[in-house]
Automatic annotation (TrEMBL):
SUPFAM superfamilies: Cytochrome P450. PROSITE patterns: CYTOCHROME_P450. Belongs to the cytochrome P450 family. InterPro entries: Cyt_P450, Cyt_P450_B, Cyt_P450_CS, Cyt_P450_sf. GO terms for molecular function: heme binding; iron ion binding; monooxygenase activity; oxidoreductase activity, acting on paired donors, with incorporation or reduction of molecular oxygen. It comes from Nonomuraea jabiensis. This is Cytochrome P450.
Length: 404
């Protein structure tokens, strides 16, 4: 299968909720730089090999300028979805302005800070698990724990009332839209979200609290190179969407993976010290991580021997790259002791995920608390009956039915 012979539709569907599509291995082996058609009908280039994905994510010539006139539109909607929206363009894409933004926001997301949040996270997780147990088995682990926990945490970080979490859920879903919502629904959600966060930023300016936005406002004033209200707004919205939707789905998928072959769960019960490496392996092994990272090429570049012209939109499939046998021994096996584990689940280079310490901490805490409180946890349906969320940028399972 050469690049010119076949144009695949992307995202590539998979029959099984937790398994990768067979095409990934074929593409990595024979056509690592592949032409694909997106939900919008536009064409893009898909990368599936580890070294290629890592190279592109670290290369400043591959930008996030997905609102360029000749960039491929990602979603079925006219505006091309969240990646191409005006809000996405507010946060600086590269160079010193991007580094300044990362410096200011990154101060809040240190491993040390996240470790300090652990006790409160564990308490939230315990309460949510108690509530699920009280309602009786079977329960939906995604709805009961996976979804609410990261929302509570991110609301807490941003100083937003947790009582508004259902609104955030809806806004997130429609902003991560590929084909699930109409243009009108997406526009309405974006307008409501902007209105809400504008009022929230103004309130934090007037009365700062002990939260990320207040700290950014304070740091901005002190350094004299701070974020504008629009940048604060985009940062708050971005963190809210990225900070809860991806982790909420990952909690469900991680537990699904560990319970789909229950010897994995039993291994962790026997040795809870494996939680840290198990979380990393779940991130690597996730075959349903969603769309991947799109990049726009401002100048002609060569990848894997293929010349990509200026104006090419490239999709980096980190999930396919994480199954690359040339980098990971027995890549198709889930090895809870795998170390080192240089997976690309959080990207690579200067655009790697800012909130990765937060996500790791949440996933570790959830696993520790579940192992302790519900050692008899098991899937309440055969693994074949787990279904993927369709039509969104992020991958996830619709439900994770469990009993204990």
């Amino acid at each position: 299968m050469t690049q010119s012979e076949q144009v695949l539709s992307y995202p590539i569907p998979s029959e099984a909720a937790l398994e990768p599509p067979a095409e990934w291995a074929e593409l990595r082996g024979k056509c690592p730089v592949a032409r694909v058609t997106l939900p919008s009908g536009d064409e893009a280039t898909l990368l599936t090999r580890y070294e290629d994905v890592k190279q592109v994510l670290a290369d400043p010539r591959f930008t996030r300028l997905l609102n360029a006139p000749d960039a491929a539109r990602l979603s079925a909607n006219d505006d091309g979805g969240l990646f191409s929206s005006e809000m996405a363009a507010v946060i600086p894409d590269s160079g010193e302005p991007h580094q300044r933004w990362r410096r200011l926001v990154g101060k809040y997301f240190t491993a040390k800070r996240m470790a300090a949040l652990r006790p409160a996270m564990a308490q939230m997780a315990e309460q949510l698990i108690d509530d699920m147990v009280e309602r009786g088995a079977p329960g939906d682990l995604k709805a009961a724990l996976g979804f609410p926990l990261p929302v509570y945490v991110i609301c807490d970080l941003l100083g937003v009332p947790a009582s508004d979490r259902d609104r955030f859920a809806h806004w997130s879903d429609s902003l991560l839209n590929l084909s699930k919502f109409t243009q009108e629904e997406t526009d309405a959600s974006l307008a409501e979200f902007i209105q809400y966060m504008s009022e929230h930023v103004a309130a934090k300016r007037a009365t700062p609290g002990d939260d990320l936005l207040s700290e950014l406002i304070e740091a901005s004033a002190a350094e004299g190179e701070g974020l504008t209200d629009v940048e604060l707004l985009a940062t708050g919205m971005g963190l809210l969407v990225a900070g809860h939707e991806t982790t909420a789905n990952m909690i469900g998928k991680m537990v699904g993976m560990l319970l789909s072959d229950r010897t994995r769960w039993e291994r962790l019960l026997a040795d809870p010290s494996l939680v840290r490496t198990a979380v990393e392996e779940a991130l690597r092994f996730d075959a349903n991580s969603g769309f991947g990272l799109p990049r726009y090429l401002k100048e002609e570049t060569e990848v894997s021997g293929t010349v990509l012209p200026r104006g090419t939109t490239v999709i980096c499939s980190m999930a396919a790259a994480n199954r690359d046998e040339s980098v990971f021994d027995a890549a198709a096996e889930m090895d809870l002791t795998r170390s080192p584990n240089p997976h690309l689940a959080f990207g690579s280079g200067s655009h790697s995920c800012l909130g990765q310490s937060l996500a790791r901490t949440e996933l570790q805490v959830v696993l520790e608390v579940l192992l302790r409180k519900l050692p008899t946890l098991e899937l309440a349906v055969p693994v074949e009956e787990l279904h993927r969320v369709e039509g969104l940028v992020v991958g996830g399972l619709r439900q994770v039915p469990v009993r204990w």
